[in-house]
Amino acid sequence: MTAVLPIRILTAATVLCLMPFSAQAQLPFPDYSRVTDERLVNPEDRNWLSYRGTLDGWGYSPLDQIDADSVSELEPVWTFSTGVNGGHESPPIVNDGVMFVTTPGNLVYAMDAATGEMLWRYQHDLPPSLIAFHRTNRGVALYDDKVYTATLDARVVALDAASGEKVWDTTVQDNSFGYYITMAPLAIDGKIMVGASGGELGIRGFVVALDAETGEEVWRRYTVPGPGEPGNETWPGESWRTGGAAVWVPGHYDAELGLGYFGTGNPGPWIGDQRPGDNLYTNSVLALDVESGEIRAHHQYHWNGSWDWDEVSTPILMPVERSGREINALVHPGRNGYLWTLERSADSIGFIDAEPYVYQNAFASIHPETGRPSYDPEHKPVTGSETSFCPSLWGGKDWPPAAYNPETGLLYIPANDNHCGIVEGREVTYMPGSSFTGARTQMTVPETAEHIGEIQAWDMNTGEEVWTREFESHNWGGILTTSGNLVFSGGTSDRFFRAHDASTGEELWRFRTNSGIIGVPSSFSVDGRQYVAVQSGWGVDAAGMTARIDQQRGTSTFVPQGGVIWVFALPE
Description:
By secondary structure, the protein is mainly beta. The protein is about 5% helix and about 35% strand. It has two helices and 40 strands. A hairpin with a 5-residue loop joins strand 7 (about 105-110) and strand 8 (about 120-125). The chain is globular and about 65 Å long. About 60% of the residues are buried.
């Protein structure tokens, strides 16, 4: 029998970090099911228990009440203003009708997922001296009877799921050195795993696992190897100390192998000739033993990175069939503009193939057996000059997640094409907590470009693109796909939330929200009614790319600010 935790009613006497509400309020959910390993690996159809719904990263809901025939009737059933401006990137996480969302500035809300009633609110106390280039948050993790959130001052906080009261609070690094956390934790095996942002600040990346019950550190694995560790020879001198390889997107988990997969970011400083070598494990996917933290395997998408193409987006763990053989694949639409198919096993990550899915001119070739790229020297930035390359530093796909639908068999990519960049490499000296890029950047858009943003659908069994939907705006919309043959996403500066036919790409429905949507959508059901939820709130790099495009085109794009949770359903 599943253990349950009774949800308690909060009063004005609740700790100061919570928003009080009437003691007479009756919460509609008397029971809250504890979140176990088994439930995270095989969640109920009605719930959305983790960042991508399932730990393999599919971004897929098996609910089909809302389908390609009925989606045109979809309507908002409740909204909630977060009271915060800036980029809202967190997916609504739902367990037994209780929704948890985070905002920029590290607020956590617990909501009645069917009505929009606020159950509790937690506000983290951030220091006035905070150092963080990207003041956003990508959501919570649920485990047992707690809610876990990571903060901009490099802490992990455990909250009681019933009340929002703080259970424990652990510092994982020193924010004064540029370490901060934007990712949603990965919870599994009694551990809460997080990595740090700060790749532009000369940090040394890591993944740390904390005990879910106590907050004590269980293990820590640095993503830039130190002396005596395999890979340290790929860093000259003491450059490993400030090597980057930040981890700022949630990992995925293979329950059979016991491995967590994490993507890593760019090296520091940005320009490769200032740190000759492959610079492991930057711009890579790492397979970590969840029990011990040991690196069991890795694949580096590009070595000696010089373009700020972070490859932090975790590959999707999905089946791919090639030449009659089913592959346990890792599929990754890279920021470097290539769509990577890798094969995972207990002690290796093998290369299958990589194909460009947007225009790319920096790679001259990719080795057919190892996947190691060779570079066109005209498009690899160097110190002391300007270098052009495509795509720009925001890449073919930045952090917004792709999705896989097992019924259509298609992978859906939120892509950006027709944009390039220029980097001027500069000498830079490391100073703790200060920018360590050594680069001045520009963005260019071809005058003939009629669109930038796309949703691409790929059949990974054939390696062919099946359909593409184009947008004049750039696209920063994470993908949700469902058993109703639908693809949901926002991501464009026109503020629309859209539904497309998952098989053909035809647009079936759109709704204009208060702001632009860079939040990740989710779907769940309460009392048999299916809902689709997303946060609207434009900001961070999506807003920065808007400004660069306007500068190139001589336009002035206005996207209103303000975070709002939007929840949609069919009419009752």
